[in-house]
Amino acid sequence: MDVHRRPIPSSGEHRQTQKLKTTTTTTTDSKSQSQALLPLYLTNALFFGVFFSVAYFLLHRWREKIRTATPLHAVSPAETAAIVSLVASAVYLLGFFGVASRASLDELSDDEIILKEDSRALGPCPAALADSSCLLPNKIQNQFPLSPKAIHSVTKEPQVDSPVPISSFSDEDEEIVQAVVSGSIPSYSLESRLGDTRRATAIRHEVVQRLTSRSLSGLPLEGFNYDSILGQCCEMPIGFVQIPVGVAGPLLLDGKEYTVPMATTEGCLVASTNRGCKAIHVSGGASSVLLRDGMTRAPVVRLPSAQRAAQLKFFLEDPLNFDSLAVVFNKSSRFARLQNIQCAIAGKNLYMRFRCSTGDAMGMNMVSKGVQNVLDFLQDDFPDMDVIGISGNFCSDKKAAAVNWIEGRGKSVVCEAIIKEDVVKKVLKTSVEALVELNMLKNLTGSAMAGALGGFNAHASNIVSAIYIATGQDPAQNVESSHCITMMEAINDGKDLHVSVTMPSIEVGTVGGGTQLASQSACLNLLGVKGANKESPGANSRLLATIVAGSVLAGELSLMSAIAAGQLVKSHMKYNRSSRDISTIVQ
């Protein structure tokens, strides 16, 4: 039978131990008395509340003194009481969570301590290893030392909900996997440590499987260039998602044909858009007009008063000051050119909406750098200006907003076409009269009844999202880029149909972000807008915006025709439902 013995303390250590036990007894007695008066959790909550509220009060007061140039040593009675309360609560909390918890451990016997250690819950990664006998090799332990608790957690037998196949790794990679699982190596640092993005992704893929006890066998690793996303597109990758890409067209727009790539998992979408392209093509094509081209960013600043905020507003909107502000703004890039500044006041807060051209880039980073330059410049004339945020949501990015619907953001485009009567009947299988009536009652009246903001269309976001994903745009900007109003009107004595889409905020770019990835770059090349236009900066991104609008026009025309002809449900059941035997897939 093993006997656990404590080293015999010296006389000085013995006296210190006795003194600590006496202190512990006193603390325990005082805690028992406090429990009789008030439950312990309420007492702790009270002192926590006092500590943080008083600390916030003092910080707020000192900030006001610094602003008003009041000496910090001039303390009011309220501040004196707050300081006393802060010290008292801090003493209590330190005493409770410091001395009391340590004293409670000293009261335990050796056997009780051992039992307590053995009964601890597993660490955050109980499913780290499939083999409970596996320990980290010595060289990994020496390079990334583990705490006893971490070693204990990775050597315990995992609790696995479902079997996860463990990939075959080299001994070195297996050591790294185990080190990441145990927490010795941060997962986000694998690329920099290994210098191999593919290897880092594979290791992280395996780590996630072991940590979650869930299989990622359907998430592919091979066939992707992980170097292309490092530091710009995605952090901590574990694979890539496959989205099928279809093509619609040719879309005859402004006298040229375009084959439009669409990445989607919604059946019938590409087929429907393709039918709309056919109707436009045989009717002579569509035409487009670009109305505006300018990305926006709107910081919010606070001034001491509303009058002072109004002074800054007048300064920014004064034409005499625009040239000097434009020089400062345009230093951020050789493509950035400030167009205008639109201001709005809310109390003493000022929102400044900067608009600038950004070449072939979508331009969010470019305009943000220019805005920062102007804010630094304004500090000289307005030193009391407090910059609250580089973006104050008056831009407005990735949100449905009236300012984008009215003023536009990115590229503002109108696209139109005249569809002949026989095309409406033979290709679209409906009539001009039915389309005009449906558009009025659905896209206009129905959207108004719903309180729509920029949503006066049938499904513009379907086409925008599919093209954005295929060409490497920011999918989240589909929110404002899908702002669209679809108009239909009978012309030529009611025989032909005039259809148009007006889209005030298409946000696209042909350089930067996801546009440089191989697949997305190929789709841009298919449209003839890959990269930057060297002869006319911005021409490629503007052309892409008109293609998006033309594709939306085709999609609107086809879907509205399907609804008018009563074919929507039938076509979706035909193209949007799998005909395979589901029972064989389950087996």
Automatic annotation (TrEMBL):
SUPFAM superfamilies according to UniProt: NAD-binding domain of HMG-CoA reductase, Substrate-binding domain of HMG-CoA reductase
Signal peptide: none
Annotated region described as Disordered, given as residue ranges: 1-28
Cross-referenced InterPro entries: HMG_CoA_Rdtase (IPR002202), HMG_CoA_Rdtase_cat_sf (IPR023074), HMG_CoA_Rdtase_CS (IPR023076), HMG_CoA_Rdtase_eu_arc (IPR004554), HMG_CoA_Rdtase_N (IPR023282), HMG_CoA_Rdtase_NAD(P)-bd_sf (IPR009023), HMG_CoA_Rdtase_sub-bd_dom_sf (IPR009029)
Alphabetized Gene3D superfamilies for the sequence: 3-hydroxy-3-methylglutaryl-coenzyme A Reductase, Chain A, domain 2, HMGR, N-terminal domain, Hydroxymethylglutaryl-CoA reductase, class I/II, NAD/NADP-binding domain
Entry EC number(s): 1.1.1.34
Catalytic activity: (R)-mevalonate + 2 NADP(+) + CoA = (3S)-3-hydroxy-3-methylglutaryl-CoA + 2 NADPH + 2 H(+)
Pathway: Metabolic intermediate biosynthesis; (R)-mevalonate biosynthesis; (R)-mevalonate from acetyl-CoA: step 3/3
Protein name, per record: 3-hydroxy-3-methylglutaryl coenzyme A reductase
Gene: LOC100815480
